[in-house]
Design goal:
By secondary structure, this protein is α/β, with parallel strands linked by helices. 41% of the residues lie in helices and 17% in strands. The longest helix is centred in the middle third of the chain and has 17 residues. The protein is globular, with a radius of gyration of 18 Å. Bound molecules: NADP nicotinamide-adenine-dinucleotide phosphate.
């Protein structure tokens, strides 16, 4: 399945995640397995420390670069115009690639850390992102962990609109306000931690629905995401799970099941962008 981006490109769904996937053989094998299983979209980041292995896994997969969609992200220490340009060059060199399909600002600079300068930092960074598109180093640009207050200034001043916002999203964290703004502006929403980092997999409501469909709870969570028009990024280093996490297009959750899943108690497994101190 592919979704259209406002940049004119399309993005495959789901994406394969690599957060906490150790650099070296584990990552190389996971990426190679993922491409062999059928993923064509791989999500990494400079801060994951595994871009070299992601690149190597892609090369070992034998798939042509043009058949794959590769995302990386600018780490927080590199925000600002010049450092962003250098950081993107480094990510490309580490990946061994000459362009990225998607480059994201990993986290917004927030007011808690940067006071009244936070917005200016994010806008400077975005200007550099636009230049990366102009120079052909990146095809589409987007944001990550930008909620409404972080998104609005970028939307107001951007020459190139963000194509994607990648945010924590799963039952218990429905992100209604950010998603409503993204929908209005034609921004694709990506879900990070769609399985709640694995911690939602034993949830009884989900296990009940999974057994009713003869599927796993991971597959139910991924299906719930796409039925809500959110693109899940899912991580595993195990070949059986890597394959399992692609196999969720052969069933449909009913309205009642969707509502039951959406009513699960509030949960957040990662940081909030307004209070992140890294
Ligand atoms: N932009 C951001 O700030 C941000 C933050 C976090 C994540 N992300 C991206 O989003 C991706 C996904 O998020 P995530 O890695 O935090 O969490 P996730 O995909 O929700 O969950 C991954 C965890 O679930 C386990 N798992 C995966 N498939 C399973 C299955 N079918 N059955 C049982 N367990 C399974 C994995 O273990 P094994 O690996 O051992 O199988 C791992 O422990 C990341 O990898 C990264 O690319 C982005």
């Amino acid at each position: 399945m592919e979704l259209s981006l406002n940049s004119g490109y399309s993005i495959p769904c789901p994406g394969f995640g690599t957060f906490k996937t150790p650099d070296g053989e584990v990552c190389i094998n996971a990426v190679r397995e993922a491409v062999a299983a059928g993923y064509t979209h791989i999500d990494t980041a400079a801060v994951y420390g595994n871009e070299r292995s992601v690149g190597e896994g892609v090369r070992q997969s034998g798939k042509a670069r043009g058949e794959l969609f590769i995302t990386s992200k600018l780490w927080n220490t590199e925000r600002g115009y010049d450092s962003t340009l250098r950081a993107c060059e480094k990510s490309l060199a580490d990946l061994g690639m000459d362009y990225l399909d998607l480059y994201l600002i990993h986290w917004p600079a927030n007011e808690m850390q940067f006071g009244s300068k936070a917005t200016a930092i994010n806008l400077d960074t975005w200007k550099a992102f636009e230049r990366l598109v102009d120079e052909g180093m990146v095809r589409s640009i987007g944001l990550s962990n930008f909620y409404v207050a972080h998104l609005e200034p970028v939307l107001a001043s951007a020459n190139i609109a963000p194509a994607v916002d990648q945010i924590e999203y799963h039952p218990g964290l429905l992100q209604e306000e950010a998603i409503a703004l993204c929908r209005e502006k034609g921004i694709v929403v990506e879900a990070w931690s769609p399985l709640g980092r694995g911690r939602l997999l034993e949830e009884p409501v989900l296990t009940g629905i999974a057994s009713a469909h003869g599927k796993t709870t991971a597959q139910v969570l991924l299906r719930w995401c796409v039925q809500n028009d959110v693109l899940p990024l899912v991580k595993s280093v195990h070949a059986d799970r890597i394959r399992q996490n692609l196999d969720f297009f052969d069933f449909t959750l009913s309205g009642e099941e969707m509502a039951a899943i959406s009513s699960l108690p509030e949960a957040r497994y990662g940081s909030h962008p307004d209070t992140a101190t890294f």
